[in-house]
Design brief:
By secondary structure, the chain is mainly alpha-helical. The chain has 19 helices and 4 strands. The strands form 2 sheets. It has a two-stranded antiparallel sheet. A two-stranded antiparallel sheet has the order 2-3. The chain is globular. The chain starts with 9 loop residues before the first helix and ends with a strand.
Length: 404
């Protein structure tokens, strides 16, 4: 019944059984409009999305988020209603991070990102409680995927903050509202997938809520595209430079009062994210400079300083895969590479998720190259050839690499 070759591995057979049962129960819940809104539906989808990520480090979030976004809309989450749960936070975070790595724009944007940056009514739903990164800071990080596309003159959704698109701003200021046609059996039919091929492709038949919004496309003039990129780049850069860690805000956000050491570590984690985001924007602005340039090395040093300053044994390293991957892609000497290598392995030993080692394998391939050849930089920076980041040519296939 499975397209995969028969296996005598009992663990694989058990996985198929659990996956089949999970999909069967999920379809039952999706057929009931009241149960569709329950956290357990999104939690089940979240776990199913993780099956392949645990095994290989890759997933199919690109298509899965289209369906997830429909369910989030049914839950009436957003600023206007004040409703926000822990699954909204998790999916918004995963979407933003995955977009920055995988050459795409985040699907959960607008009101989703605004809501994640607001202080939630329930501290257990705060991003800081789940990812260790300051939620206000993440509001800027979530825009990096879009900036990456703009730097390559590739299509992006029109920015709703532009005055010429005021009519769109109201539509995108909050998550999509409930649509009667997506409830009950009609919704369940979208997810009527067989257990053995639950890889996210079933979500591809769902139309994204932003599909009808205008695009800034490659048909626009070169100067218009260039101007849009630099305007948004400067805005993001300024936000990253001006951001400061606010311990009092963090204390009000967390469900329990952190110890002084925990509070310090939260600040270090957020700083590692901030300097990694600055490093990301620096590469977008200077795609042809070698990694050995001081513009990059100063930022790499800052990231690694905060990564190595965390309390030993605190477990906070589990939040650091994205900063380690971004900074690791610009490491040029054995000391830097050894720090990143050691931290990735520490995270792997505690979590068991193979995405940690998969990300490290990509970095090892980068480090093995003679990356400072300007000719390669120029080739990779042209539209359609992988963009400014060297890691893209080592990430083959249609699946997404997950660095969380």
């Amino acid at each position: 019944m499975s397209p995969d070759p028969p296996s005598n591995d009992s663990s694989i057979q058990e996985e198929y059984q659990h996956r089949s049962l999970a999909v069967s129960l999920l379809n039952q819940q999706l057929s009931d409009p009241s149960k569709t809104r329950h956290d357990c539906v999104l939690a089940t989808l979240f776990i199913l999305c993780h099956y392949r990520m645990c095994e290989s480090g890759v997933a199919q979030f690109r298509t899965q988020f289209a369906g997830v976004k429909k369910i989030l809309g049914i839950r009436d989450s957003g600023i206007e209603t004040g409703n926000w749960g822990w699954m909204e936070t998790l999916f918004t975070y995963f979407d933003g991070i995955a977009a920055s790595i995988n050459d795409r724009e985040a699907q959960l944007r607008g009101g989703y990102v605004s809501m994640i940056a607001a202080t939630p009514s329930n501290p257990n739903h705060a991003l800081e409680n789940m990812a260790g990164c300051d939620s206000q800071l993440f509001k800027t990080i979530a825009k990096l995927g879009r900036l990456n596309l703009l730097s390559q003159h590739r299509p992006v959704l029109a920015d709703p903050t532009q005055s010429s698109l005021e009519c769109l701003a109201s539509r995108r200021s909050s998550p999509p509202q409930h649509r009667q046609g997506l409830a009950g059996q009609a919704l369940a039919d979208f997810y009527n997938l067989h257990a053995h091929n639950f890889d996210g492709n079933g979500f591809a038949s769902l139309i994204d809520d932003d599909a009808t919004l205008p695009l800034l496309t490659s048909t626009s003039s070169h100067e218009d595209l260039r101007s849009t990129f630099w305007t948004e780049w400067k805005s993001a850069r300024l936000a990253l430079q001006e951001w400061e860690f606010d311990p009092s805000r963090l204390v009000a956000t967390l469900p329990t009062t952190p110890t002084p050491i925990q509070l310090r570590d939260f600040g270090y984690i957020s700083e590692a994210f901030r300097y990694s985001a600055l490093l990301y924007t620096e590469r977008l602005a200077c795609p042809n400079l070698p990694s050995s340039h001081l513009n990059f090395q100063n930022l790499v040093s800052q990231v690694l300083y905060y990564v190595t300053s965390l309390e030993q044994g605190s477990g906070c390293e589990k939040f650091l895969l994205w900063p380690l991957f971004i900074s690791g892609s610009e490491c040029v000497n054995e000391l830097q590479q050894s720090i990143v290598r050691g931290k990735c392995r520490e995270i792997m030993s505690r979590s068991g998720y193979l995405n940690n080692l998969a990300g490290l394998e990509v970095l090892e391939e980068l480090w093995a190259e003679k990356e400072d050849r300007v000719g390669d930089r120029e080739k990779n920076s042209r539209p359609g050839l992988g963009g400014p980041f060297r890691w893209t040519k080592h990430m083959n296939g249609d699946e997404e690499w997950i660095m969380v």
